[in-house]
């Protein structure tokens, strides 16, 4: 009677993804600790800024602190600092050819595993920083808890869509470390992880709020705080999820042509 | 130890030189990553004139001194915090059977000269800040002293983080909270934090001596904790004290590894 | 050259005490060629780690070339050569020649002496064809020969090899064995190797140490080992029988603890 014995393929893959990461729970707890420490440091900077400019970006001081810990909580499930997929190694070693000839689509396969991973990291790396933030500074309660959970899930899907593109790009680009660095820069800056995108000035701010990275940390936080209308925010996330997954499907087809037919 | 370190760093530099394009791209990437922090400071000061009592040029000065020290330390010795990978992969055993200092081998391993990009960015920021601040020579002499002390302090932090990984081999990320966290902490005036945190960073873990205390001296600002301004000149002493603690911790870590086998 | 007396090593794994090595005593004279056999997890690698100073023993005493490895690790490192079959001591991204040159500097070998030794090793190990190739591009057999060369550049009195033939093809194995035999015969280098490959033992070693459940189960010549299990002639069958019989009862060692012929009826 192993749990998940009766599950169909994709939920089962998600369950394996969950279990696989649960085996590394000390690393996840260490990550939660680090995310919490950085959350505390960022919170003080944001408090100083909001004391100088109360109500900035539509947030109160309490909102800003909450935003800080919410975005720290997004780092694990949405892998804002890394690729979080095995794909680049498998491409480098050539094992990806085996993945591509499986009768199950590679993208869906990876997505299932990634959702399982995200579910575990949500428990291990998102809950502790949020609790610590609540204990140390006090954070506001969610306005729409159900919409928030939906928004987090969509955020994970968008982040997967992006990371999958970056990972698969190493089929064509030799320097996958350079790609990972580029992705890190774009994601940390444009996801709202460093500062709320709502305070980025002028047209630059409008642009950052329309890019896919805004669907990762910024959108779920705004749904939580009630500073964005849930339906609009969820639609924005769903749009980017669709676009990125569609691009991923196209890229997978191109990768299959390149790897399987041309032989690398 | 210095000879060993220099030999290994030179070997890794030559290895990196085989891939010129990759080196250039990664150095540019490091430069841009350094620039992200500046973009954040820019966004903050697009919204306010002063943060916890400090203006943009002063914040850039504090950021520049700390970041220059951190980026240099990270480039030269930051790989010490990869020790848990060496333990897991068994490569630490290979280092232990060589007749040279283990610390130098770990610190030099996979030396990445591309990290110079971040050092260059930090130096540029510091240069711009100094040009805007117009600090008299009578206090400016402290700037190079504080950067060098900062390098020693951050290197000690990396070493302490490495030593901690002998205990927490499965959770090396804990060390990041102290190393990268220490760098993040010093990017802004410490007056944004709770005074108790600043006290801890003065008397316990002397990160306040990287740029805050000497920076107050250079900027000729009163100390919110009320300590006299000459305490800012104690950075070299604080750096040496922390280095001694780090050296002891590292030795204890190696001893533990060799006596417990894990 | 190597002296171990009542050597013991205890690990604590989740509050359980595990005796990885217990009461291990043996003596290796200068110029001997000794193979260390034993099933997976028997304590061979732990023993190697204690001999090289990577791991301190919890009881007993070792001397390698007169030095206590745990206390004089760095001094000992200059007098011994160590080869790990499963991982390389060479620098992954550097050409083999640069890796060897780096070892020359780390071990402080004189340039002239180094050149002579490298010339000799190049001929014997046939390194010439891939001296300028980065280590990561070498085949396993080439890498192993490079590793052996690196371990011998400082002309150590003792060479310790942990599974040096693991994963090698038959030709590479033969080359490595040939070289080790010549090195031992011509330079008088003391060699201690661990292996799972009985071909190594048959072709190289006059003497076998069999380690099982952390203690010495047999110490003697190959012929003595064969005589342990009557009716078996190939060394492969003998060792299989011994391993299987020890697996059945982990608490009571079924093998005679002393060298000699009495069959396993303990």
Automatic annotation (TrEMBL), chain A:
**Is Membrane found in the keyword set?**
yes
Q: Which domain of life is it from?
A: Bacteria
Q: Which Pfam families match?
A: ABC2_membrane_6
What taxonomic classification does the UniProt entry list for its organism? Bacteria, Bacillati, Actinomycetota, Actinomycetes, Streptosporangiales
Transmembrane portions of the chain = 23-50, 118-140, 146-166, 178-204, 234-252
Q: What is this protein called?
A: ABC transporter permease
Transmembrane as a keyword?
Answer: yes
Its keywords, alphabetically, are:
Membrane, Transmembrane, Transmembrane helix
From TrEMBL, chain B:
Q: Which UniProt keywords apply?
A: Membrane, Transmembrane, Transmembrane helix
Q: Which InterPro entries match?
A: ABC-2_transporter-like
Where are its TM segments located?
21-45, 116-133, 145-168, 230-250
Q: What name is this protein filed under?
A: Transporter
- Record organism: Microbispora triticiradicis
TrEMBL record, chain C:
Give the Gene Ontology MF terms in alphabetical order.
ATP binding
Keywords attached to this entry: Antibiotic resistance, ATP-binding, Nucleotide-binding, Transport
**Family matches, as PROSITE patterns:** ABC_TRANSPORTER_2
Cross-referenced Pfam families: ABC_tran (PF00005)
Membrane topology classification: Peripheral membrane protein
Q: Key word DNA repair present in the record?
A: no
InterPro entries in the record: AAA+_ATPase, ABC_transporter-like_ATP-bd, ABC_transporter_ATP-binding, P-loop_NTPase
Residue ranges annotated for the ABC transporter domain, each copy included: 5-238
Disordered: annotated segments: 245-266
Record's subcellular location: Cell membrane
Q: Which PANTHER family match?
A: ABC TRANSPORTER ATP-BINDING PROTEIN, ABC-TRANSPORT PROTEIN, ATP-BINDING COMPONENT
Any idea what this protein is called?
A: ATP-binding cassette domain-containing protein
- Organism equals Microbispora triticiradicis
């Amino acid at each position: 009677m192993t749990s998940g014995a009766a599950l169909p393929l994709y939920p089962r893959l998600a369950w394996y993804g969950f279990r696989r990461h649960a085996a590394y729970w000390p690393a996840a707890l260490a990550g939660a600790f680090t995310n919490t420490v950085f959350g505390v440091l960022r919170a003080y900077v944001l408090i100083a800024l909001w004391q100088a400019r109360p109500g900035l970006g539509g947030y109160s001081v309490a909102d800003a602190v909450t935003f800080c810990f919410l975005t720290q909580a997004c780092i694990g499930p949405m892998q804002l600092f890394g690729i979080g997929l095995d794909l680049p190694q498998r491409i480098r070693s050539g094992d990806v050819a085996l993945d591509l000839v499986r009768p199950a689509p590679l993208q869906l396969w990876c997505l299932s595993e990634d959702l399982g991973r995200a579910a575990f990291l949500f428990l291990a790396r998102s809950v502790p920083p949020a609790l610590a933030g609540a204990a140390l500074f006090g954070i506001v309660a969610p306005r729409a808890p159900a919409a928030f959970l939906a928004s987090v899930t969509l955020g994970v899907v968008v982040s997967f869509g992006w990371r999958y593109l970056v990972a698969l790009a190493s089929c064509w680009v030799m320097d996958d470390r350079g790609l990972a660095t580029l992705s890190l820069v774009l994601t940390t800056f444009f996801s709202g992880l460093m500062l709320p995108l709502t305070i980025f000035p002028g047209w630059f701010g409008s642009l950052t709020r329309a890019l896919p990275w805004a669907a990762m940390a910024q959108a779920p936080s705004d749904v939580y705080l009630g500073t964005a209308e849930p339906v609009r925010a969820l639609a924005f996330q769903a749009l980017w999820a669709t676009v990125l997954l569609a691009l991923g499907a196209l890229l997978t087809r191109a990768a299959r042509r390149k790897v399987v037919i041309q032989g690398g | 130890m210095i000879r060993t370190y220099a030999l290994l760093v030179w070997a890794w530099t030559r290895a990196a030189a085989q891939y010129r394009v990759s080196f250039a791209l990664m150095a540019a990437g490091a430069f841009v990553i350094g620039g992200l922090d500046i973009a954040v400071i820019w966004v903050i000061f697009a919204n306010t004139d002063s943060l916890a009592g400090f203006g943009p040029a002063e914040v850039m000065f504090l950021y520049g001194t700390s970041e220059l020290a951190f980026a240099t330390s990270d480039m030269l010795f930051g790989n010490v915090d990869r020790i848990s990978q060496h333990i897991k992969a068994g490569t630490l055993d290979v280092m232990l059977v060589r007749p040279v200092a283990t610390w130098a081998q770990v610190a030099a391993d996979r030396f990445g000269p591309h990290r110079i990009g971040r050092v260059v960015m930090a130096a540029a920021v510091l240069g711009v800040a100094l040009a805007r601040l117009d600090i008299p020579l009578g206090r400016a002499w402290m700037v190079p002293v504080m950067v060098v002390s900062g390098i020693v302090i951050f290197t000690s932090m990396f070493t302490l983080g490495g030593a901690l990984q002998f205990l927490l081999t499965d959770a090396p990320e804990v060390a990041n909270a102290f190393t990268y966290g220490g760098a993040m902490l010093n990017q802004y005036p410490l007056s944004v934090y709770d005074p108790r945190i600043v006290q801890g960073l003065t008397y316990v873990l002397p990160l306040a001596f990287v740029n805050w205390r000497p920076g107050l001296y250079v900027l000729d600002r009163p100390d919110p904790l009320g300590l006299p301004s000459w305490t800012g000149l104690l950075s070299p002493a604080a750096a040496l004290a922390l280095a001694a603690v780090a050296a002891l911790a590292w030795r204890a870590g190696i001893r533990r590894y060799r006596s417990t086998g894990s | 050259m190597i002296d171990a007396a009542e050597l013991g090593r205890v690990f604590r794994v989740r509050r359980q005490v595990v005796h990885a090595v217990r009461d291990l005593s043996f003596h290796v004279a200068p110029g001997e060629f000794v193979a260390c056999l034993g099933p997976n997890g028997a304590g061979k690698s732990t023993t190697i780690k204690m001999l090289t100073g990577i791991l301190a023993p919890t009881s007993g005493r070792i001397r390698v070339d007169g030095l206590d490895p745990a206390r004089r690790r760095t001094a000992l490192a200059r007098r011994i050569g160590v080869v790990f079959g499963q991982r390389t001591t060479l620098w992954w991204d550097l050409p083999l020649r640069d890796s060897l040159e780096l070892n020359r500097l780390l071990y402080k070998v004189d340039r002239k002496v180094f050149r002579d030794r490298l010339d000799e090793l190049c001929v014997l190990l046939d390194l010439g064809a891939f001296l300028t190739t980065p280590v990561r591009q070498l085949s396993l057999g080439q890498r192993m020969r490079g590793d052996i060369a690196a371990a011998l550049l400082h002309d150590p009195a003792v060479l310790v090899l942990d599974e040096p033939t693991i994963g090698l093809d038959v030709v590479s194995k033969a080359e490595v064995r040939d070289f080790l035999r010549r090195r031992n015969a011509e330079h008088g280098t003391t060699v201690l190797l661990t292996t799972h490959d009985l071909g190594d033992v048959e072709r190289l070693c006059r003497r076998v140490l069999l380690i099982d459940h952390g203690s010495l189960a047999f110490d003697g010549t190959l012929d003595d080992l064969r005589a342990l299990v009557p009716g078996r002639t190939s060394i492969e069958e003998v060792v299989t029988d011994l391993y299987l019989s020890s697996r059945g009862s982990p608490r009571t060692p079924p093998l005679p603890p002393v060298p000699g012929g009495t069959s396993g009826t303990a």
